[in-house]
Amino acid sequence: MIERPESAVASIAQRNLEGYVGFANLPNQVYRKSVKRGFEFTLMVVGESGLGKSTLINSLFLTDLYSKDYPGPSLRIKKTVQVEQSKVLVKEGGVQLTLTIVDTPGFGDAVDNSNCWQPVINYIDSKCEDFLNAESRVNRRLMPDNRVHCCLYFITPSGHGLKPLDIEFMKRLHDKVNVIPLIAKADTLTPEECQLFKKQIMKEIQEHKIKIYEFPDTADDEDSKLIRKIKEQMPLAVVGSNVVIEVNGKKVRGRQYPWGVAEVENGEHCDFTVLRNMLIRTHMQDLKDVTNNVHYENYRSKKLAAVTCNGGVDTSKTKNQMTRSPLAQMEEERREHVMKMKKMETEMEQVFEMKVKEKKQKLKDSEAELERRHEQMKKNLEAQYKELEEKRRHHEEEKSNWEAQQRILEQQKLDASKTMEKNKKKGKIF
Amino acid sequence: MAATDVDIFSNEEKRNLSLGGHVGFDSLPDQLVSKSVTQGFCFNILCVGETGIGKSTLMNTLFNTMFENEEASHYQNGVCMRPRTYDLQESNVHLKLTIVDTVGFGDQINKEESYKPIVDYIDTQFENYLQEELKIKRSLFNYHDGRIHICLYFIAPTGHSLKSLDLVTMKKLDSKVNIIPIIAKADTISKSELHKFKIKIMSELVSNGVQIYQFPTDDDAVTEINSSMNAHLPFAVVGSIEEVKVGNKTVRARQYPWGVVQVENESHCDFVKLREMLIRVNMEDLREQTHARHYELYRRCKLEEMGFKDTDPDCQPFSLQETYEAKRKEFMGDLQKKEEEMRQMFVNKVKETEAELKEKERELHNKFEQLKHMHQEEKRKVEEKRRELEEEMNAFNRRKVAAETLSLAQPLKKDKDKKN
To answer: Where are stretches of biased composition, namely Basic and acidic residues (chain B) (predicted)?
Structure first.
């Protein structure tokens, strides 16, 4: 079922007024302003040719949208599925309505209908895109709302059930636009057949989890009853007619058969009146609101998510990102990045410091080693010197000793030779 | 509208069709109204005026209820904004009313910064709305709109002219919010003085270029009343919640020894006019102006500040996707650059330090070489000395040996001599 937005429940101070203030007039002010502004509505009709789409539009709006001056799409030759829009301005009771009818000639008419829904989807998306771009401009002007507010899907009155094409189309479009399925040319079904057909269709819709447009619950009891009645009659079986026939003195729109007249606006003949009342008189505004608050927001968030997350499919992250605007998202990413860089910076600093410390330590160590070796060598040298000194001293000592000895010996010799000479002289020598 | 806008939005032919009967879409305004009523309305009033000028009393009188209020002292450090929200209901209409008071306005000795908190508050409300509007998943219909729809500016009843604080403040606010100036405590001014006072005030506002809110005259139903009311600005009001018996009625009034000032008597003051204009006739227009004019102006300035443009240099309109993608690319590029810069800085730092350390290493190496040389020198010297010593010792030994052999030979000679 389509999710409905819930109004916020405020928990603020309640006050009772003790006299006339006057803001009960607000709704009137709103009324006046809205009439001045005028209204817009875009209605799309989809279905195979010959199901009476154009006729139904004419009947709904009691005008000749498709007249001989503006022939309907059915009279045009179509090779592929077209999407055509016609804008008309209608006035009633002082209220101006710019009505855009979007027709899809060629839908389902080809032999191979695969992707015949694509032009429809493209059209709806392009209107949403236009609105999104207009909404996102810096200079915004009054934005015309060309989004498709309602899609009437025409089901062939086979009496059996939905066709695969019907199911496929509705499945693809139910989350892009409000889909209201209708049984076309309902005057080919008897009431009992119609009932069975409706039941079958609703069963299939539920089976395939197709979300068709749901009527909102109202607080008003009477309205609720009406809504419940309408819900039971879904999908609505409609008959349209461009021809006015006289029946019992009254001029009515209807289809003349040999066996009688099928009146368009007769509640017992078909659900046309229900459709018109629901679509135009009671729920037009709601259709616009659901389009704006649900379908368009869906489109927008998908589009913006694609832009921000660059198509990333990380669901845990995206949930968080959804609550921000794309710019806030970029801000967040920027902050994360700054933090990451800070962390990286500190890490790199740490590594750097560590390496520097290491190297410095190594240098210190080799310096110490150097010192040590130098000390050692010095010590060695000193030892050697000392040794040498010792040796020299020893040697000098020896030398002086020996020289002293020699001198003594020499002296002795001298003395001896002197005495010998003396003795010789004395004739001691014979 | 710019030419391009017109082209984009209404280039399709629209046919006027006449209807052959009653279709029923004239109920559209009713559908819209019933939806609004179910949703409830929201209205935010900002009251700017000196302490004690009667702001709270006027609010109580306007809305016929007692809102909470503590009397403010005159000794606030600065202006402080005090918003309070109330839920009111009249017949089937729910109104979420927020009254924002400016506490401490006009009390400080230096009032140059007085307007700032007010402007900031208004901007914050716009900013919050803008942020909500820009979110990916947003819920605008649920959003409690805090944007100020009307600023009631309370003018002190001096009878002469506007104070400079008034002019400065109103000038700062006029592009951000709808301003309705009112003369407070109007029961202190006589009718003739009042008339002159009003003229003086309006002419001062005009000559200073202050844009106050004009009641709209483009809607047929209210043109007359609005244009006549425009001439009565600024409204001279009296507020009172006390009830006094006048004749056989009990009315809200202020009782003086010389008479009773009736709040709802139009010949006594303009209270009824204010109530008519503010609440009964133009509430919706005030809300619309705030959204369509003041908020849009804020939004436009903000987006332009952020670098958004509507057209690229070739004057082709940007699509939203392109804009965001361009921004994102720019943003990513920015981040990349920052990262690169940081890395580069590091690389440089590393290079520097490496060079330093290498230098140190080289020095050490040199020192080492030097020491080695020195040591070798010393070693050589030692070696030389050693050799010298060796030689000397050798020489000495030779002498010794020579001497010994000689002395050995000598005794032989002696013996020989003896023999002879």
So the answer is: 371-389
Average pLDDT rounded to a whole number, residues A252-272: 87
* B157-194 per-residue burial string, b: 16 or more CB within 10 A, e: under 16: beeeebeebbbbbbebbbebbbbbbbbbbbbebeeeeb
For chain B (420 residues), the mean pLDDT of every run of 10, in chain order, is: 31 68 86 88 92 89 81 78 88 89 86 88 92 83 87 90 89 91 90 90 91 86 86 89 84 89 88 89 90 91 79 54 72 82 83 85 86 86 86 84 76 54
Which amino acid belongs to residue B176? K
From the list B95, B117, B143, the residue with the least C-alpha distance to B48 is: B117
Degrees to nearest 5, angle at CA B256 with B252 and B260: 45
Residue with tokens 């899609």: A151
- The nearest alpha carbon in chain B to A345 belongs to B342
Q: Where are the alpha helices (DSSP H) in A20-117?
A: 26-37, 53-61
What pLDDT is stored for residue A296 in this prediction?
Answer: 92
Contact in structure between A88 and A115 (CB atoms under 8 Å): no
Q: What mean pLDDT do residues A383-402 have?
A: 84
Q: What is the pLDDT of residue B150?
A: 93
Residue-level pLDDT at A324: 64
Q: Which residues of B touch A96 (CB under 8 A)?
A: none
The amino acid present at B324, given as its one-letter code, is Y
Element (H, E) at B186: none
Substitution target from B32, B134, B306 for chain A, most A beta carbons within 10 A: B32
Q: Which member of B12, B335, B400 has the closest CB to residue A334?
A: B335
Alpha carbon of B112: minimum distance to chain A alpha carbons (Å): 33
Task: Measure the CA–CA gap between B283 and A329, rounded to whole angstroms.
Answer: 37
Please give the pLDDT value at position B412.
Answer: 55
Nearest to A186 by CA among A299, A291, A266: A266
| Alpha-carbon span B383 to A187, nearest angstrom | 135
Find chain B residues with C-beta within 8 A of A350's C-beta.
none
Q: Do A21 and B63 touch (CB under 8 A)?
A: yes
Question: What values do phi and psi take at A155, rounded to 5?
Answer: -105, 135
Instruction: Calculate the average pLDDT of chain A.
Output: 81
Question: To the nearest 10°, the Cα dihedral for A205, A206, A210, A212?
Answer: 80
∠ CA(A266), CA(A270), CA(A276), 5° rounding? 80
A interface test, pick of B144, B320, B420 with most A CB neighbours within 10 Å: B320
Give all strands of the β-sheet with B259-262 in edge-to-edge order.
B243-246, B249-256, B259-262
Where does residue A250 rank: exposed (0-12), middle (13-18), buried (19+ CB within 10 A)? exposed
ipTM score assigned to the predicted complex: 0.72
One-letter amino acid for residue B14 of the chain: K
Residue (of B110, B145, B102) closest to B290 by Cα position: B145
